[in-house]
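note to self: dont lose this again. the chain is below, predicted strucutre after it. 186 aa total, dont forget to put it in the shared folder this time
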Amino acid sequence: MNMEFPTPLIENLPISIGVYYDDDLRNFTYNETVSDGSSWTIELGQNNTRLFDRLFGAMFSRTTRVDDIENGPDDIQAIIQPILEEYAFLTPNELGSRFYAVSIRYRLILYDTAGTELADWPINAYGQSRSGIFNAGRGKTGPLQNATDLAMRDAAAGAIVSLPTQPEILALINGEQINAESNDNQ
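---
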């Protein structure tokens, strides 16, 4: 299912960023059989790129998709790569409640235009959705999809709050050169 993400209403940061999506993020599919024996398949690949395109498009003054971390174009200051590290969910049966709960952990990695890692930041997010009559028309995946949507929106909110305060982002805003050696103590 394709999710729609609202464009964040934020003032963008005056940075030109390249965005790199690897195959794992673009094609992410999660399969699990839960304790009650039901099998679930969650396809997030296109939704991941849709989320980060919308987020980074609003967050930075200019974004460009790049196909290679090591050879960024000359008109960008850095490259950012989102990685989906973990996706997990619990059903109402597992929770003993009427809710589906989803947790997602992304990691955002910042590279210089030559592909040297400069920094990375974890983004942990959570979403929950009530099962029941409001989701009856969408089948059993409706509330799980809603919880996933909310977790992904929570991830975007976490990035909006945390990234502008990171020293490496502030250095890019100020036009300062960042090197990997100065960030080894993270």
